[in-house]
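hiii, so i know i said id send this last week but things got crazy w the move. better late than never?? heres the sequnce for the chain we talked about at the cafe, plus the structure i predicted for it. fair warning i was half asleep when i ran it
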Amino acid sequence: LDSEELEQVANMLSLSKELAQAYHLKELAYELFASLDVYTAKKKLLAFKMAVQVANLAPFNKVASTYTQWEKEILNAFDVPFSNGYTEGCNNRIKVTKRVAYGMRNYERFKKRILHTMVQY
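okay and structure toks below
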């Protein structure tokens, strides 16, 4: 953000205590997922959950609860450099193509259309 945009954000945050808390919690979550190792991520996850308890904002309470339930899996993401993001993206693209091609009768043409869209991906 440039200086004018930062000033606008500061003005908005000064108008609402809840908005300022939510913004702070969002920034803590971004810091958590920018961690480079499990040890740092674990410390930041604990700091995030403690900040959520202090703020007591319902949407973030739910997020903290979810993070607690999936803590092991979340922290494993910092150990393993692999992601299924590409596979999920391909799957989503195929589903969109399927919806767009609703009513297409020729299966071979449908299959070629999927393959064609995946080549561009």
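btw The two ends are 31 Å apart (CA to CA). thought thatd interest u
miss u guys!!
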